[in-house]
Amino acid sequence: MARILRGVGVRQVAEITLQDVVTHQLDLVIECGFCSHKGLLDAVELVGLFGGRMTMKELPDQVRCRQCHRRGGHAVLFKTGDGKKDWWPRQPEARR
Question: Which conformational region is residue 5 in: left (phi greater than 0), alpha (psi within -120 to 50 degrees), or beta?
């Protein structure tokens, strides 16, 4: 069975737009591919900067990690609940 994100159905992460994130009130998290820092992003602010049609495939190249300051190589994740395993499409990496 395919994993489903509330509101957006069975679409892949790359197909979801910023407008989808705002419309369905999703918690958008970017995980740095270099240092594993995770940051919750304000989707409304991002729509103002990049427009609602920007996809989650395009977003990682436009944001910079607040910890290591590198751009690109990031993963888009969605927090789907309060539990430790409530993430879509996968849980974040646990690096130290």
Answer: beta
Cα gap 64→50, rounded to integer Å:
14
Instruction: Return the number of other C-beta atoms located less than 10 Å from residue 40's C-beta.
Output: 10
Largest CA distance in the chain: 38
Q: Which of 40, 53, 33 is nearest to 93 (CA)?
A: 33
Q: Say what the pLDDT of residue 1 is.
A: 43
The residues, ordered by sequence, that sit 6+ positions from 26 with a Cβ below 8 Å of its Cβ are 5, 6, 7, 8, 20, 43, 78
Whole-structure pTM value: 0.85
Residue identified by tokens 């993430």 is 87
Give me the chain's average pLDDT, please.
89
CA-closest candidate to residue 15, choices 53, 66, 71: 53
